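Q: What structure does this chain adopt?
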Amino acid sequence: MLSYQELLYKVYEDGNIETILDALGCHSVHFEQGGNLIVGARPDGDNRRSVQIKNIDNLRSSIRSRGIYGNIYSVIEYINDDYNTKHAYDFIMGVCGYTKNTKFMQTPLQRLNRIKRQRALILKHNKLNSIDINILNQYIYGDIKQFTTDGISLEVLKEYDIGYDVTHKRITIPVYSIDGELCGIKGRTVDNIKNIKFLYLYRCNQSKTLFNYHRSKNDCILDGEVCILESEKGCMQAKTFEVYNTMGLGSSGISYRQLNILLELKVDIVLCYDEGVDYNTITKTYINFFKGKRNVYVMYDKNNILKSKESPTDNGREIWDKLYEQKTKIC
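A:
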């Protein structure tokens, strides 16, 4: 019979952390820190990094949003609040298919196999499922006034397959993987007051890709620089006024996967966030990750050119150029 500590070692060696989190009902489970940390959201939570399991033999764990610290037993006991450590032990045994005859014996071959499995899991989690490109045919294409009045040309709208979903009354924005495969469709409301601004008509994990990557990668490499915008709209505005080396996060935050995608580009990075964003908070992530690896710049609005919540691309090429000239190196 495995001891409590041996069971932790066994789970670690067999790569079963994800299996346990899935069985608990945690969602948005993903790898960070090169596979050394597995994180996810509680079953009823929306914080994608609330549950954190160190991918080491003692499975040091936490639910930071609830002040829970210990190992994976502690996580199980909190999520199943009527469990004690014995219940948590039995839960792991059942989920992982272990029996009282299961033994723990680490050999060099077992350790090598675990490393191979870990790498395979990371690749799996970084992969986005593709969807049929013909799905786009159900949407109406043409003059999307919400976007054309924001400075996006009809030619660019067509190039990016921007459409309109009559059923949901939303502008449709296709999301592509870094390999250029359609993997999701985002719907943007035309009524910002009454509705949620964005929702997925075909869901995907956009944190595993960068909007415009497959279109602008070669331009970024040629220019030796990528300009990072928050939104998809910003990339299309930039394309309209002939700036081609942009990519969009799809949010104000950046994921560990997106950081690695940028690192692999081997070019300088310029952060071009909307007016009002707290750059001090955001840039810490970039500095910690890219320092000594890549040059990172911030497009600061030093002269208060932009109005509240405006993007650097909202006012055309002339304003973009002025802001670009004021960019400041942070690492």
